[in-house]
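User: I'm writing a tutorial on reading structure tokens. Could you give me a worked example: one chain, its sequence, then its tokens, then a sentence or two explaining what the tokens reveal?
Assistant: Sure. Here is the example chain.
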Amino acid sequence: MSSARSRSDADPVAQALAGAVALTRDAVRSIAAANPVILIDGRSGAGKTTFARELIASWPLRGRVQSVALDALYPGWDGLAEGVRVAEEAVLRPHARGLIGIWQRWDWDRGVYAEAHAVDPSLPLIVEGSGLLTAGTAPLGDIRIWLESPARTRRQRALERDGDTYRPHWDRWAQQEERHLSEDVPAQLATHVFAIP
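And here are its predicted structure tokens:
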């Protein structure tokens, strides 16, 4: 066995995400549902996509879990609220009623809706994205996650991830997130709040 520290031991963000994922797995087990719905919200760069990916990789129940990222639903740089509305109406409400949900991917390069995707109501569902926790969506999630992270490190991670594509739109998107924080107070709608450095 190597005595070298693993990457997650040296990386406080990876450590925080791993701890949050472990607690969420315990919560998934405790609700004893075959098709639980997990909602993951947080500002840009907070770690939502990584959190969702790690939760899927270590999913505690038998069978497959499906996921929807709001990045595929937002209709452009001014579309935070509209993407959340589409997630609620086309994905979450049908899932709650036992119906197949259908959503279309937004093609960011062409600025149009593209192919359609189905969501199976019999399977567990993870939905992640900025703006997700609202008074309308919260009752549709069994486990509701809010990731809290400082602005400086969030911005650094987001711009390292998306670079010059995102840089000119950072402030524009942040204003929509601020409106979400003010109007929806997502941390108060969460069942779990995790601090990510």
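What the tokens reveal: Residues 8-195 form a domain with the Rossmann fold fold (CATH 3.40.50.300). Residues 65 and 107 are 24 Å apart (CA to CA).
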